[in-house]
Amino acid sequence: MNATEIITNLTKDQIRTDLPELVVGNNVKVYQKITEGNRTRTQMFEGTIIKVQGGGIAKTFTVRRVSYGVGVEKTWPVNSPNIEKIEVSRKGKVRRARLFYLRDRVGKAAKVKERI
């Protein structure tokens, strides 16, 4: 048994199956648990998935939105226990795996077409 098989066997029970498929270009609402002192609350972050990378337990995704004229990007591990749920609000029609070109665009030019 080699090292990758050992790691896969150890982490297979920690991989989440309750989340929807994360596809680049989709608009998603990510509900994240925030801990402040001894209280916890849920905060929503809505935006477009611009990148999905990695695999297995180390898979991550990046969501981008424009807030008060400033572009904000957040990256989460897919299997993080801090993510309460993810809702897909809009499916995007894109032809590339990374949407970094959205960083240079503003207004309507930064929109992704919807897949019907």
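[next item in queue]
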Amino acid sequence: MTSSDFLSFLKSISTKPLHVLDASIPKSQYITLDLSESNSELQQIDVSSSSKFSIYINSYLKDHNASVAYGGYKEIRNIYSRSDHFDVDATSKRNIHLGLDLWCAAKTQIFAPLDGKVHSFKNNDNYGDYGPTIILEHNISKVTFFTLYGHLSLESITNLKKGDVFKCGEKLATLGDASVNGDYPPHLHFQIIRDMQYYLGDYPGVCAKQDLEFYIENCPNPSVLFEMG
């Protein structure tokens, strides 16, 4: 299946927008957020400090009377320079974001947007990493693909088992805080993955420029499921 065919397939799954947060949150409570290297405001923030970064995110939400800030697919970000976890080699770093981020309060409930089963899970506890992560496997109309949920609470994976089934709309997890989520302001990293390759409980959510063509083919824009820009 070509990448354009796969995108068309994703769009055909549901006639209504799917939800990974509480469906009762109105669209008016969502606001786009630019965390790219071109955001001059962000250049004034010490993003190596999760507390200072959180002040920026919380102020942004308050200023826009919003509950959720979202965005980030294919965004070139400087925020990853704080951690050598994103080094590729001496001359290149991973700094292009491959998922959709949803910035909201810690303990926010996360729901399965589609029927699926647990492919794998893991606490990716490197500085700047996902923290607790769940990957669901979906098989819809004989098409298999995966969704990744990063920056969760430790409780989200405590009693989880491989193969556990989650129905669309069923509570899957809750968001973690900076003490467990890789040291970020609370947010969900949501990513669609066509081929998991050899990964278990983890998959790159940020890539280097030289690898972008492969990753955008394997990880299409997640917004297609939620009718977000």
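[queue empty]
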